[in-house]
């Protein structure tokens, strides 16, 4: 199975509506979290989603247990780049034409490699799973999907190890969405189930390919 390009609208909608209820609840909780509480909530959600395993994920300053930076520091460092991505839309063609967007994504990769600080994988640094999940959350679903193993398999991407790889993978997702639109003669947003029409396309695509 290669992404959604060969799906009918009904197939696509069934994918989205059968996405894991637990993850849907996590997302609602995240969107309802006020900005001052987001670093704590980000830490808790990423830990629940096992975003950094098998490495040790950083904690908030209040919890401590390791040298700086803490989760708050990463969120603060990421904020200007998150703001730049306020106009990002994975369903647009092309989504990565803006040098500012590319620069912001590259900087976010560098920042969130520090999401973990010790462990047997990647010399203790976070990989694409942790990085893309953190960015998916902090952009409220604009930049998606989160490239866990299941999503990578679904879109036919074996590995993502650098910011350039990540940007290319987002391009693959955009091509998949465009292929779906051409195949069905309908826009991605129009095909999205009404109950989820308020969500950004990156999140919708994540739901379509993510866990059941």
Any descriptors?
10 helices, 2 strands
Mean pLDDT, as a whole number?
A: 96
What share of the residues does DSSP label as strand, in percent? Answer: under 5%
Largest sheet: 2 strands, antiparallel
Number of helices: 10
Rg over alpha carbons: 17 Å
pLDDT below 50 for ≥5 consecutive residues: which ranges? none
Give the end-to-end Cα distance, rounded to a whole number of Å.
Answer: 15 Å
Architecture overview:
This protein has a two-stranded antiparallel ribbon with strand order 1-2. The chain has helices spanning 9-17, 21-31, 38-48, 71-84, 99-112, 128-138, 149-155, 163-184, 188-191, 201-209, and strands at residues 56-57, 116-118. It starts with 8 loop residues before the first helix and ends with a helix. Helix 4 (71-84) packs antiparallel against helix 5 (99-112). It has one domain (9-209). The protein has 212 residues and is mainly α. Helices cover 53% and strands 2% of the residues.
The gist of it:
The protein is an all-alpha fold and 212 residues long.
Q: Topology of this protein?
A:
Blueprint: H1 9-17, H2 21-31, H3 38-48, E1 56-57, H4 71-84, H5 99-112, E2 116-118, H6 128-138, H7 149-155, H8 163-184, H9 188-191, H10 201-209
Antiparallel strand pairs: 1-2
